[in-house]
Amino acid sequence: MTSGKGILPAALLIAAFLIIWEAAARGVNMMFILPPPTGILSKLWQLKEPLFFEHLPATLSIIVIGLAISVILGVGIAVWMSISPSVEKAIYPIIISSQMIPIIALAPIFVLWFGYSIWSKVVVTVLITFFPITVNTFDGLKSGSKELKELLLTMGAGKKEIFFKLLIPSALPHFYSGLKVAVTLSVIGAAIGEWLGAQAGLGYFSRRMMTQFDGAAVFAPIVLLSAIGIVLFILVKCIENRSLKWRKIE
């Protein structure tokens, strides 16, 4: 876990940034373009009911469903590729190619297919988040010690024992690394989907406020989106620390 001394420099840097932002915003005096942090917090408080009780739950549902599908899909594909070289040769290039197409270009197509339902946003989130989970988990499954594998084989272990006693423990740190990247990307995926077509959500609310030239109201849901990403990252980190007690984590 990070110590208090380790957090202090980051806290001081963030405080300095916010002070400079506040001074610059008030100096420019163009609140509809560059609102000060205090103005954003004030607007966040004013809009707490629609943001927290209507749009936040809509965005969270997209993130949770998208991440759940990505974990199941990503881990499943990674395991499948690790046990079958032919599957790896067939699927791995497709997985890489899926990240070459800009998601922002595909999102409108998903809106055409699924309409303004939650699933158009979920698909965008899955496309963004499944890649780091799949690649990191696959690399982890491939990182198992050959010496330990040979030792287990000489002791009469079968494929099942090798998979559960060697490959999974080797893959877990990699899986969590991919998941920590995925949870932050899931917020971006949900926001992109909502920006391009939605009836509720923090991304949708931010885009709607742009048409009203209300800078503070545009930034308010962005603050919440950032907070969601931070909380999810910390949650995954806590789960990682608890499940990997056998491994020293700095």
TrEMBL record:
The keyword Cell division does not apply. One of its GO terms (cellular component) is plasma membrane. InterPro entries: MetI-like, MetI-like_sf. It holds the Pfam family BPD_transp_1. It comes from the Bacteria. One of its GO terms (biological process) is transmembrane transport. It is found in: Cell membrane. The keyword Membrane applies. PROSITE patterns: ABC_TM1. It is a multi-pass membrane protein. Residues 56-236 form the ABC transmembrane type-1 domain. Keywords: Cell membrane, Membrane, Transmembrane, Transmembrane helix, Transport. The chain crosses the membrane at residues 58-83, 90-116, 122-141, 185-205, 217-236. Belongs to the binding-protein-dependent transport system permease family. This is ABC transporter permease subunit.
